[in-house]
């Protein structure tokens, strides 16, 4: 009695081994490496942007008076310039669509100088919220200093700080938000929200 010997075990295992290593081989191909790099880049960008603070920009008519107000009377802590501002992330301020009423009226110089992302002052409003104070707003009625903002939330947070520091204020209008603040030295600052 003879038994046939089958040598087909080795050919059956070879496709299984090749099938097992085929995805790894595809993973280390040029296309696989590019997909891995893009996934790593997307993860890094998500972590970077989710940890980046939200920044509100406030245009003021007098930078020095604004610095004295925010540091002296509201006692806001100065903040580090966020990393993404070093790479011109702040190009979408919307400054081209500003009503000329809010811009400087001095015809001897341009209404808006080129702004670098690091110009002005930086303050910490909340844990992950910063205030970027820059020049560029015009003087208001009765030679009143103006602080102009495009974000309602920003002005609400400043108003809350004013209320907690017991600084005198008067709300003139809710929408768009407009209120006056009287400093300890007697200067009146108008905070105005600009609706796009």
TrEMBL record:
UniProt-recorded name of the protein: Glyoxalase-like domain protein
Keyword Transmembrane included in the entry's annotation: yes
Record keywords: Membrane, Transmembrane, Transmembrane helix
Keyword Membrane: yes
Annotated InterPro entries: Glyas_Bleomycin-R_OHBP_Dase
Regions crossing the membrane: 5-24, 30-49
């Amino acid at each position: 009695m003879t038994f046939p010997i089958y040598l087909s075990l080795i050919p059956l295992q070879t496709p299984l081994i090749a099938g097992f290593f085929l995805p790894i081989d595809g993973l280390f191909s040029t296309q696989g490496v590019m997909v891995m790099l893009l996934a790593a880049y997307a993860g890094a960008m998500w972590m970077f942007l989710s940890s980046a603070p939200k920044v509100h920009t406030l245009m003021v008519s007098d930078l020095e008076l604004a610095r004295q107000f925010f540091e002296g009377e509201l006692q806001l802590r100065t903040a580090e310039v966020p990393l993404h501002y070093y790479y011109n992330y702040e190009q979408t301020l919307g400054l081209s669509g500003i009503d000329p009423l809010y811009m400087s009226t001095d015809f001897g110089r341009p209404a808006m100088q080129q702004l670098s992302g690091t110009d002005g002052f930086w303050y910490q409003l909340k844990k992950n919220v910063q205030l970027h104070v820059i020049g560029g707003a015009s003087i208001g009625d009765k030679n009143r200093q103006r602080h102009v903002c495009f974000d309602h939330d920003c002005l609400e947070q400043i108003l809350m700080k004013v209320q907690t520091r017991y600084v005198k204020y008067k709300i003139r209008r809710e929408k768009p938000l407009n209120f006056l603040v009287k400093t300890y030295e007697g200067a009146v600052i108008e905070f105005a929200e600009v609706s796009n």
